Amino acid sequence: MRADRLVSLVLLLRQHGQLSAVRLAQELEVSTRTVLRDIEALSAAGVPVYAERGRYGGFALLPGFQTQLTGLNHDEALALVVAGSRRGAQAFGLGSALASAMLKVIDALPESYRDTAAGASQRLLIDPAADLLARPIYTDEMPDEVAAEVLRAVLSGNKLRIQYAAFNKPPEWRDVDPIGVVTVRDQGYLLATREGSDRTYRLSRIQAAEALPDAAERPHRVDLDKAWQERTTKFRTGGDQVTIEARVHPTRREELARTALAIHTERPTPDGWLHLELTFQDRRHAEWALWQLATHAEALSPDWLRATLQTKAAKLAARYAES
DNA sequence: TACTGCAGCATTGTCTGTGT
DNA sequence: ACACAGACAATGCTGCAGTA
C-alpha cells in the first residue's frame, strides 16, 4: 500500500512540478504528516526531492530526475508501447490496466526517448477496427468478467467451469483443465484438456466462466506455441476432408491454393489454364473456394460439387433474369 | 491443528514548534 | 499566514509462544 503511494507521489510531483504537502495529501487521501513522512522515505531512498518552505512553498523533484520503475531500456519500452497499441488486451479485459501501464512505461523513459515512445503509440496502429474499404474486422466479443475469470484460472492453474455454446448447439456447462490462451488475429482460443483429452474452445463462444478451487491437471511447463501447432495440424488432418479436381485461370491460382489443405497434382491444360487436384477441410470449404472464383474456375469432380455449384449458379441467373 | 494472547513493528494522525 | 518538521500516541498487522 505504502509502496504504491510512494510511486504515486513521485508521479504526481513529476506531473505537477511542485506541490504542497496539503495538496499531495488531498490527492493521495492521507494526512499531510503522512505525506511528509513519505517524502522523507523517498529522500532516504535516493530520490532527489526537496522542500521549498514558506508561503507558496511545497515539494519538488530535481530537474531531470527519472523514475526508474521498470529497468527497461529504450527499445524494450518502445516494444511494449507498440505492443500496447494492439487490441489484443481487450480480449482479456485488461484494456484499462494496459493503458495505465503504458503511461508508467513512457514516464520511466529517459527524457530524450520519451517523445519517441509516446509518439510511437500515436503513429503506429496495429489491427484497426476496419480495413481501407471501411469493412469492419469481425472480432471475437467476450464480456470482460468472463475473460477475466478465464484468465484467472489459466494463470492460477485452477480448474475452470465454462458455459460453452458449440456451433449450432445449445450452451452446456463443462469443467476443463485450462492450459493457455491463444489469440490468432482477432480470434481467441482456450487450450485445455477435458477428462484427459485435448480440447480447444473459441473464447467468443464461452458465455460464462467460473474458476474452481481445485488445481487443474496440466503439465508444469508448456510450450504453448508447439501445443497450438499440434492442434492446428490435428484439426487440418481431421474432419470430413474432400479431394476434388478443378481447373483454374492462372491469375487466380494462388487464391485457390491458399484455401486448400493440400495440392496433390498440378499441370497446365491446352487452353492455358491449370488442372489441380486439391484437398479441402470439408465440402463447405471446397464449395466456397470454387464459388468465390466465379468464372475463373471450374470444378471437374466429384459430381456433387459440380451439381451444387450448378444449382447456385442457376438460382443466381434466374434472379437476374426476373428483372 | 487451531486458537489465544502478547510483544514488536510499521503506519498513521494530532498537536506543536520552526522557518520563510 | 503559510508550509515543513519534530514529538507523541493510537491503531493495525505480523510473528511467536503457550495451551486446549
TrEMBL record:
<dbReference type="Pfam" id="PF25583">
    <property type="entry name" value="WCX"/>
</dbReference>
<dbReference type="InterPro" id="IPR036390">
    <property type="entry name" value="WH_DNA-bd_sf"/>
</dbReference>
<dbReference type="InterPro" id="IPR026881">
    <property type="entry name" value="WYL_dom"/>
</dbReference>
<dbReference type="Pfam" id="PF08279">
    <property type="entry name" value="HTH_11"/>
</dbReference>
<dbReference type="InterPro" id="IPR036388">
    <property type="entry name" value="WH-like_DNA-bd_sf"/>
</dbReference>
<dbReference type="InterPro" id="IPR001034">
    <property type="entry name" value="DeoR_HTH"/>
</dbReference>
<keyword id="KW-0805">Transcription regulation</keyword>
<dbReference type="InterPro" id="IPR057727">
    <property type="entry name" value="WCX_dom"/>
</dbReference>
<dbReference type="GO" id="GO:0003700">
    <property type="term" value="F:DNA-binding transcription factor activity"/>
</dbReference>
<dbReference type="InterPro" id="IPR028349">
    <property type="entry name" value="PafC-like"/>
</dbReference>
<dbReference type="Pfam" id="PF13280">
    <property type="entry name" value="WYL"/>
</dbReference>
<dbReference type="InterPro" id="IPR013196">
    <property type="entry name" value="HTH_11"/>
</dbReference>
<keyword id="KW-0804">Transcription</keyword>
<protein>
    <submittedName>
        <fullName>WYL domain-containing protein</fullName>
    </submittedName>
</protein>
<dbReference type="InterPro" id="IPR051534">
    <property type="entry name" value="CBASS_pafABC_assoc_protein"/>
</dbReference>
<feature type="domain" description="HTH deoR-type">
    <location>
        <begin position="2"/>
        <end position="61"/>
    </location>
</feature>
